[in-house]
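Sequence in, structure out.
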Amino acid sequence: MSEKDFYAQKDLIKRLVRYKNILLRLKSMGLSRVFSDNLGDAAGVSSSLVRKDFSLASLAVGNKRGGYSIDLLLRRLDDLLGAHDVQRIIIVGCGKIGTALLNYKGFSNENIQVVAGFDNDPARINPANTPIPILPISQLEPFCQEQSIQVAVLAVPEKAAAGILDKLSAAGIRGVLNFSPVQLKAGSALFIQNINIAFEIENLFYHVRFNQRQANAGS
């Protein structure tokens, strides 16, 4: 897969997840069918892109006049995204961000199970912690291989991120959600989603200031 195709697929998956969340909200409101323009408006994309995404993901289960069945779309999205299976993950780095993620109750609603945390600080290590043990980094590789863990959340300091990433790769991890304050590069067998909180906040401030300038210019 070329780099262009890789990022196109990544963007497609993001939109499919967004569509699923919108469909769940619509279903909770008592709706049974939806049109591509409704989904497009809610997702911030064009209706033609919605239809194209559904075609690429083999989700075309409706027509322009009658719309799409929300229940059928949700079932097919769950099949495609693997939502029927329990997604077992680990969290590496149990500082403030890692601990917040360990204690996050919303994972269970998405069929995600945090099975262990890992840290180098002896004060944080607690193998008897219930229900999620916190183990030393030295046990990372055997634990992941024994438990067949494929996805990890990384929340370690910048200086430790690259070294821990090597350990995760050696342990058989294939996907990393990176909260460390450094951009990590994916390899051929390792997918990385970088989450830079400071950048996202800066981006929000840019849009706020831009909207304020636009409003002032029009007044």
